[in-house]
Amino acid sequence: MKGLELIVKYPLAGKKVKEWFFKSMLESFKDDTVPDEFKEFMLEQGIEDDKIGILIDVNPRMLLDVYDDNKIFIEILIYPNEEFTCKIGNQATTQSWKTRKEAELFGVEAAFEILENKLSPKLEE
Which residue segment(s) compose the domain that 20 sits in? Predict the structure, then answer.
């Protein structure tokens, strides 16, 4: 599933991811080498969902900090045959991928659902 699809399918997790991106952007503005005009422009524009979706697709591992902050730990493992697999918390998968990025994308997608469930209000039984 693409990054934008994850943000749409899991709105609570998507909101948390967007908040993390915005917070990271604000922290980067503390750097005096970033021109004030650019800072103002970025604050006015914000970050649109499709842009965040592209960032997720290109570099899924950047979300590991978001998940770590929410106590969802993704571990990428490598088999002796040099294929990669993924473990989220105590849950491992029997799937494997030829690249680390493919395993990371799987982990990020699975963690989106876990985060959504963590953030969803619990119904009284």
Answer: 3-119
